[in-house]
Structure formats: structure tokens, C-alpha cells
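Work Package 3 (structural annotation) set out to generate three-dimensional models for the target panel prioritized at the project kickoff. During this period the team completed the workflow that converts sequence records into C-alpha cells, so that structures can be stored uniformly alongside our sequence database. As a representative example, we reproduce one entry of 491 residues exactly as it appears in the project archive.
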Amino acid sequence: MTRVFPGEDELAGSPVNKRLLGLAEERKASAGLVADRPQPSVPDIERACLASMLRDPEVCVDLALAQLHGDNIFYSPAHRAIFDAIKTLHGDRNIRIDMLSVAQYLREHDKLDAVGGELYLAELELAVPTTVNLENWCRILSKYAMLRRMIGVLSNSLLKCYDADLDASTLVDEIENDVYKVRYENVSNEVLEVQGLIENEFQTLLAMQNGQRDVGISTGYSQLDEFTGGLKPGEMFVLAARPSIGKTSLALNVIANVAYKCPKPRPVAFFSLEMTAEQIVRRLLCTEAGVAESVFWNRSFQMSEITKLTGAVTRIRDARLFIDPTPGISIAELRAKVRRLKAQHNIELVVIDYLQLMHSESRNFKQDSRQQEVAEISGGIKALAKDLKIPVLVLAQLNREVDKAAGNARPKLAHLRESGTIEQDADIVTFLHRNRDETKGDVTSAEAEWIIEKNRNGRTGVIKLLFYPSRMEFVAAAPVSGAFAPEARKN
């Protein structure tokens, strides 16, 4: 008996085969949905990141490599080849990055023409006017790279789902695992076992006890150092007061103690959002000389005061003090500049005057959510201190509620202006307090208090100071001992 096979048209018209052909078309359409569309990318940001690394390699290369993880972080093959060259030269060969070294590497590997030649590298180096936004650019690149990887994982997962031979539960587990890898591949492993830490911390404590290692940087006010241990690496130290109380003067007194008065001067970065660099240096000079700045405005100075100023110039001239008077600096700009100063000059203390004059890089806050913006700034400052392992002394304003309190009431944590998160982020919160009426007229000195209201790793208390308005200087009311005592400084 001869078996008759159905024709192709008849086979295609059967219900079963209609379904099979439909599945095939759906699978083809699903694959085409991805294949026919361009992958998400930002060519301008890719160029900006590479330009930053070529323009300022000492700071930007390490910063970029710390944030850009995984393969194919750059979508453009040319940009990917340039980035791979920078990684290899910097990491494996320890060669300083510049246009010529990158071009030579690409030439050796027959990739220079493919990326556009030396001309494109030269254009790339001039692609951005500043590198301060590199950190934000890296975050954008990482986000788009994650989207591309997720597209690949989900496209592959969709094709797997059409394979009826696979067990459904096993397939779902595989897909979940693939998605999980994409989600967390850029999260650095910060979970550490105590076994790797306990011995080092024990030796650190012994070194502190034996005087072989400083607990923190001395402020020059011995009583404060006894309470706080000084300005410790990774800590955010807040000094808050109402306007015209003298918080900038006190901060400059601390800077002077750290930068050039102490036996072991340290590099300091001062970000002044309120005063010019010339005003700051003038105040430092007059305070160090013990001369009132007003004598120069009314031309009543004496030759003896010129002699004092000359001596002050000699003592301050070699201080490693770096002043940035940029008004309204953003937290992103601050991070970039501090990282650069840390890399180039190994600064050990950052001082910011003052927090509420800064703004965040997210300028989409509404007028009534200023507290949210201040919270972002405060968190950024704390993260900066922690990441670079240096102390940050930040000045802050108090709200008007402290003025409404009865009598000459001391400020409290609730008086911090515009954000309660400053209190949460800070390791130490202090207040400068005095009666402003006591410095009106021809007054030689006035009593003041440095109040330690929050101290995450120590005691709280009150330190008595004397304020000399003529030279804008705060001194300890009690006798000074230790490295900052007059006899010690003479030696």
C-alpha cells in the first residue's frame, strides 16, 4: 500500500504546524526586537571620561578605574580600545598616561588606525574644559553598561524560554542568577572577616599607647583634643555658630595650628565659600603678628607692627596651605578638587566654610526641599572623609531659634540650620558660643565657650576660651600645655 504524504501547503495549514510556525515567528520577532534597535549608550560621556584621563591622569585615572568595572563599559569599540590601553599602561606596566604613551601602545597592537589615529586622541584630550564631573560621568557610563548587559541577559533568557526540553524551574533559577550577576557585579566587596582586621587594630592601639602613632591631628587646643582625640581620619567634625560669633576665626586658628604652628606642620586644604583668598591670608597674617587689621584701614599703624608682620610672613611663608575661594561649590566639585589635592600634595585636613553655602549636583530640588539638598551635601562630605581617610572640619550655621531662647542660652543640636542629617552624619558636633554684646566697643577680650555636643567616640563637654577681637584669635582660658605651649614652640 502506497503511503501518500501531504504537500507542503497542506502541512503548513494543519493546526499543529500553524502553532509551530507561529512560535518560530514569535521567536524571530523577539530576537529582532533587540537586534534591530541600537544599544543604549552616551558617546559624549564616553569621550568626556577618556578626555579626563588624558588631561589629568594623576587623579582621574585612579578615580575612573575604581568606578568603571567589567568588560565593555564603553560601547564604542574605539573608546573601548583606548580605555583598555589606559588600564594596561597604568595597571600592568605602571607607565604615566598621556596621549603619546596611549598612541604608542595602540600602534604596537595594530589598533591606532582603528580608533582614528593620533589626530582623534589629540581631539579627545581637548574634549572637555574641566574634569570635575568625572565621578558623575563614570556613574552614567556604569548605568548604561548595566542596561546593555541586562538587555543581553534578558534576550538570551527569552530564547531559552522557547526551549521546551529545559526544566522550567531550572530555567527560572538560571535566569534569576544571570539577572542577579548584572545587578551586583559593580558592587565592591566590602564585607570583611574579623580575622583579617583584629591583629592590625590591636597593633594600632599599642602604637597609640606607646606614642608611636597619633590618634588624630591636634587642633592646638589641648582640652578639646583630650575630649575628641584630635581631628581623626575619616571623621566629619562640625563647628557651628550663629553669624558674627567667630566660627571662621576659630577655624583659621585651627588651620594655623595645624599648618605652621605645630612642631609637625601638615598640608591643609581650605575651601572658603564666603571670603576671598586675599582676605583669608590677610587675616592669618594679622592674627599671627598679633596686629589689628583695622590699623591699616585707618593708617594708624606703627613701625613696630610692620616688624611683627615681617616676622609673621617668615613663619607662614612655607606653610602648605591650599585655599580655594570658589563660591557656591558643589559637592561633586569639592570631591574632585580634594582628590586632586590628596594625590598631588597629600593633604591631611580639609576645612569647609561653610556647609549651607554649598549646593548639590542634583539641581532638581524644589525651593521647599532645601533640607533634602543639605542632607545630600552633608552625606557627601561624610563619604569624602571616609573614602580618603582624612578629617573634614566643616563649619555650619545655626537657625534663628537659638536667638529666641531666654537669656544667653547655649545652642543645641536642634538648632543646626536646614537639616537634621548634619547631626546624623557628623562624628563630632561642636558649637561656638559667646555673648556678642561683650565685644562691642573697645574691648580687649571676651569669654567664649567651645561646646562639644556630640562625640561619637568620646566624651562631651564645654571648653572655656578667650576671644581677642582685635586680632580675631581664640585662646584657651586655661594654661596651654604640650606641643603648643610657648616654651615648646620656642624649641
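The chain has a mean pLDDT of 80.
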